[in-house]
Amino acid sequence: MTEWAASVVVVGAGPAGIAAAIRAEGAGRSVILIDQAQRPGGQIWRHRDRAALPRQARSWLQRLDRSSVRLLTGASVVDAEPSSRLRVDLGGRPLGVRWNDALVLATGSHERFVPFPGWTLPGVVGVGGAQALLKSGMDVAGMEVVLAGSGPLLLPVAATLSRAGANLTLVAEQAPLGRVIRFGAALWRSPSRWLDAARYRAGFLRTPYRTGTWVLRAEGEDRVREVTLTDGDGERTLPCDLLCTGFGLTPASELARLLGCATDGWRVKVDGVQATSEDGVYCAGEACGIAGAEIAILEGEIAGLAAAGDRAGAERLGRRRPPHDRFVAGLAQAFRLREELSALPAGTTLVCRCEDVPLERLRDFGSTREAKLHTRAGMGPCQGRICQPALQHFFGWGIDSVRPPLFPTSLSVLAAPEEDESPPPPTSIT
Amino acid sequence: MDRSPDVVIVGAGIVGAAAAHVLTAEGLAVDVVDRGAPASGVTGAGMGHIVVMDDSPAQLQLTAYSRRLLDELAPELSASCELSRCGTLWIASGEAELEAVEAKQGAYAEAGIASEVLDGDDVARLEPELRRPLFGALRVPGDTVVYPPGLARWFLDRAVERGARLHLGTEIDSLGPREVRAGTTTISAGAVVNAAGPWSGRLSPGLPVTPRKGHLLITGRYSGFCRHQLVELGYLASAHDLSQDSVAFNLQPRPTGQIIIGSSRQAAGWDGAIDRSVLQKMVARAVEFVPGLAGLDVVRTWTGFRPATPDKLPLIGPWPDEDGPWILSGHEGLGIATALGTAQILADLMLERRPELDPAPFRAARA
Amino acid sequence: MSVESEVGLTVDGETVSSAADITVAAALLNLGKWRFRRSVSGSPRTPLCGMGTCHECLVTVDGDRHRRACMIPVRAGMRIETDD
After folding, report:
1. Percent of chain A topping pLDDT 70
2. Is beta strand C79-81 parallel, antiparallel or unpaired with respect to C58-61?
3. How far apart are CA B276 and CA B291, in angstroms?
4. Coil, helix or strand at residue A410
5. What kind of architecture, by CATH, is found in domain B7-48+148-209+311-366?
6. With an 8 Å Cβ cutoff, is B156 touching chain A?
7. A185 vs B118, higher pLDDT
8. Which domains does chain A have, with CATH numbers?
9. Nearest-neighbour CA in chain B from C66: distance (Å)
10. Contact status of B111 with chain A (Cβ, < 8 Å)
11. Per residue in A226-281, pLDDT tens?
């Protein structure tokens, strides 16, 4: 297997990962930055045309262009070996990536879904999912679109859909108005966030934004045709070609957990300089808690400096960090899921979409592991990333252990022998 | 406790579950205790190959007997047991192994097990993904595959229907001939059965059962990729030799279209971590036999601990002497395949009947 | 601004054209494909997460099964089969 090495390896080229890579490189280290996508930016700065990105994003991407950071795109990390080496699937070929001094995890988050009748129909997508598909070229012009879910992500996605020509008929936030307003008030400290929110809302002015409203079911023969929502009193059914639904984000901590890093629920635990419980492994951004891009960038910078051995610099930057935990807690509190959502799925509603396991088959069990063994829930190719947060929500079950591969990958990638010196992969290393 | 059961079984894996099934069918009152959920230990990690094996005459008899007992139950099994009549192909790796194929057929025939010798062309026709040239194989059409946690749960469900009580999530601290103790609770019983698999030695200190680590991988869904459980003839040698770590080619098609790839054997203590070098050796061995595997997606890898004994035969009976608690352990890699047979022998011995098989080779106190 | 050009693809045996510089998932949706794959119990599925996590968008690309359509850019001459 071909092997690459650097002083510092960063996984995830979103805001946190880019910031970490640039800071570590600025401190004189060789750096490799790895991402699954074809371009750097992560989800928040996902783009086809860089000119369309906000100035801050363009500026970080330009710094990355000008840096000596080696960028490895289209690359999925499928294993972390005990010998400080990642195993990467690069377009179906194996590549070893060794970190000599430090590894920074900037793996971001997954969208959280709450199963409801009809959520597996074609045309039901995530809120972040819709954003990602739009940014990767999906055409929604003329589609009847409803957004129903929770969290700050609803606003920018509504604006994007509207701008892209969708006929956006409703944006439904499950959290009640009072909580959303209190969350907004807490943002006064950060005026840029208000400006963003106002700009996003202006982007879909003709569409009603309803708080305290949630989805009940999606219906259609072969794809979604209509969606029924409620505000707790009445029900309302809207025609719909595309239903965007998502209930916030869950830290993507699989790689951290495979490495043995301590976690608090899904969040990776870090200290003041973003160091995890494992020697030489740092974590920054949403994998340590959902707090938005601003904080992710700062955490990335701190982690990058610490990874490069500049602990004093990292601590200096750390003092500039806003009270992260309070923000994470505030966000979670404002958009916490209302109890009614736990009653959404019918017995026959599928919870595990990979193995088609309905809720009624899961009720007999007491743990994630037991349910896995006896129903196969969480055993499919998404490896439980979609259903585990839902199972945790419905039943309070714990988080299962992580083993290689982190993503399904071919046997030849996961277990390419050491001595096999296959020619270097068709690489997008720049 | 509002009653004292006739038998308390420690371990809700396939072996303890089969024992609960058989003993309750005999009319005994049974309690089953497990520190976790049913089948959450070795059973959940196993392949589920119901195979006749001929490492020793006793093993051949026991596996043949157990396969027959499971076949008799087959019409009653639930879909979740995933019984699949795929048969086994024992693959010869060269001309030199063809003699071994013939010898194996002879041994199976003596035990009443049908099998047929195939030439290379037959094998290629049956399993086109196998690498050429092919020399031949022994096909054992009566071997089957089950989903072990499904079968264990089915056994327990039958036992519960007949009045068995399950104490799950109950960690046993110690056991004696007539009681088990969990914290401040003691369950007294007419007899105690230690069916704790590789952990049985912790509850019966000195019992010669050691963990023998194995790795497995499972692919995504590729229906029709192969039809039989495919095993290299050299597998037995790998399983037999306790002195060193080994890998052998062993491939299983699941009814889901997934393929389980095995196998490895290591004396690695209780370290359950995935050993990448073992995975590499296993995959390399599998790809030697089936090149097309290399391009299939693997979705999961895991390890498990087989409960191994020095002579590769399970322990059935009281230990260390006639007054000790009963042992039902040491099944190594054949726990799923022989659970039912060993449970039946246990029941016969407990009820002072003469077992269909000579129990002497399995006597726990031999060790 | 990059110039949007078109690429030719074969989707389920039919020759079609798609915007270049988009993902296979976007291209299939734009072609009105509302069934990327069949679930294990046979129901049709299309992308959920759009970012490589959910594996609902698995299709066959140039003979390679179970590929995530949302992670792969379209390429001239690509053969895509849905409904696996």
Report:
1. 95
2. antiparallel
3. 20
4. strand
5. 3-Layer(bba) Sandwich (3.50)
6. no
7. B118
8. 3-110+250-330 (3.50.50.60), 115-246 (3.50.50.60), 339-395 (no CATH)
9. 8
10. no
11. 999 999 999 999 999 999 999 999 999 999 999 999 999 999 999 999 999 999 99
